[in-house]
Design goal:
This protein is of the alpha+beta class and 432 residues long. Among the domains are: 4-92 and 334-428, no CATH class; 199-286, no CATH class. The chain contains 18 helices and ten strands. It has helices spanning 4-20, 22-27, 43-50, 58-69, 78-85, 91-104, 132-138, 175-180, 183-189, 204-212, 228-234, 248-256, 296-301, 304-316, 327-358, 370-376, 380-386, 391-400, and strands spanning 117-127, 149-157, 162-170, 193-197, 216-220, 238-243, 264-272, 278-283, 366-367, 405-406. The radius of gyration is 23 Å and the shape is globular.
């Protein structure tokens, strides 16, 4: 791979140009009258403030921001910020994330598996702050209670640790349908992609939709999926099955998408986990010579990367620690956090090259401490995007090198699925 230093500098320059462009303002304001007058919190300052990892009380964060970056040092009230943010579309942060994607995937200078980008796709639930508007737009937790909740779906580059696309929808949203919505963005990135799914996505209609869009896939199958039990009992390692029909529900799903069912071939691969458990992987990669069965255990293990990304999302950047009670604030916070995580990954790639040199010959390979480095981004990213001094970026990279952590293969941590209450209270944020 070529040095990422040049790419990182280009991304930062393009993001700065984007934030300062008139077109960007016009495309991401709610009405034509918004951000036309000189206010305490103009468009650019609003964007940078919301990218500054806001986790304490809003008023303290605003006062801190103005003391460091304000021109006239006049304080901004929480009320003024809330009024200003209602003029900003959440797409402003999606546009900034697209700058990272466009630059990162401009050539083949990134990690692939058999000439394909490996994408993990999965969903998760987010707990939201309580308000009538949020309950109306997102719904509530399905199993009792009145906690507002949303469902998110992420399409994550497992080898390069970049979020390609992500969606946040109503709590009763369909994860398979959300997964298909990622394809449009994926196609803009690269036509050679392999999506990896857990068993919750296993359905014939879903596989057909992926094939219709020229998306290769590998997914773990449920034990009750057609042909799985006979395949396990056969003790074969790999077998190609013809699916000449599909259940009525699958036919209806295809019909809703204007797709007519056609017979498809799906390859089953037996994978034996370290604990002896047998898993069956369904894949569109039919060529057993080009894709030997022995590759699929490691391929499927890459999927754990999206679980790690959800952990970063919920427990490191604290995405559920929202800053407002409106639907717009939820969308703004969510997509601002996605941008920050991708920017962190890009900087980490640059620093990783230097860590590899420093730790050459060590027992373990070391990587950037994502938790520690995220904390270092506070204020530093604003400095980088606000000014023209290259030392700000170099100083942040120096901080990313602190306390790298060893990579120990095979370590897994279970997802905490028993969240019975909101962890973050907007009216009771930390003041220190």
């Amino acid at each position: 791979m070529k040095k990422t230093k040049k790419r990182l500098k280009i991304v930062v320059k393009r993001i700065k140009n984007k934030i300062n462009s008139i077109e960007y303002i016009k495309n991401n304001r709610v009405s034509e009258k918004d951000f036309t007058r000189n206010r305490k919190l103009p468009f650019k300052s609003l964007i940078l403030f919301m990218l500054n990892i806001i986790k304490q009380t809003l008023q303290k964060e605003l006062t801190h921001f103005i003391s460091l970056f304000g021109k006239n040092n006049k304080n901004i009230t929480k009320s003024a910020f809330c009024q200003s943010r209602m003029k900003l579309k959440h797409t402003a942060f999606i546009d900034l994330n697209d700058v990272i994607l466009e630059e990162f995937y401009t050539d083949n200078d990134f990690k692939k598996w058999n000439d394909m980008i490996v994408l993990g796709v999965d969903g998760s639930k987010l707990n939201l702050p309580y308000s009538s508007e949020i309950i109306k737009d997102f719904g509530v937790k399905s199993k009792g209670g009145i906690m507002p909740q949303a469902i998110i779906s992420s399409c994550y580059d497992l080898l390069n640790e970049i979020i390609i696309d992500t969606k946040i929808e109503k709590a009763d949203g369909n994860e398979r349908i959300m997964a298909l919505s990622h394809i449009e963005k994926v196609k803009k990135i690269d036509n050679q992609c392999l999506m990896v799914f857990d068993r919750g996505y296993s359905a014939i209609w879903f596989m057909l939709c992926l094939l219709k869009n020229d998306i290769e896939f590998a997914m773990r199958l449920k034990i009750d999926f057609p042909q799985v039990r006979p395949f396990i009992e056969s003790e074969e390692v790999s077998c190609i099955f013809d699916f000449d029909n599909c259940p009525r529900k699958s036919v209806l799903q295809l019909k809703n998408r204007g797709i007519e069912f056609i017979p498809i071939k799906i390859r089953f691969v037996r994978v034996i986990l370290d604990d002896g458990t047998i898993e069956v992987i369904a894949t569109s990669l039919l060529d057993e010579k080009k894709y030997p069965s022995g590759l699929f255990k490691e391929l499927y293990s890459y999927r754990w990367g999206i679980e790690t990304n959800f952990d970063r999302l919920k427990n490191k950047i604290e995405v559920e620690n929202f800053t407002g009670f409106s639907t717009l604030s939820i969308l703004q916070d969510y997509y601002a956090n996605m941008f920050i995580l991708n920017l962190q990954s890009l900087i980490a790639m640059d620093v990783q090259e230097e860590i590899d040199k420093e730790k050459k010959g060590a027992e373990h390979r070391y990587k950037v401490n994502k938790n520690l480095s995220l904390g270092f981004m506070k204020d530093k990213v604003v400095n980088i995007l606000m000014g023209d001094n290259p030392r700000y970026l170099e100083e942040l990279k120096d901080l990313f090198r602190i306390e790298p952590i060893p990579i120990r293969k095979g370590r897994k941590f279970p997802r905490n699925m028993n969240l019975s209450h909101r962890k973050y209270n907007i009216n009771n944020k930390k003041a220190v």
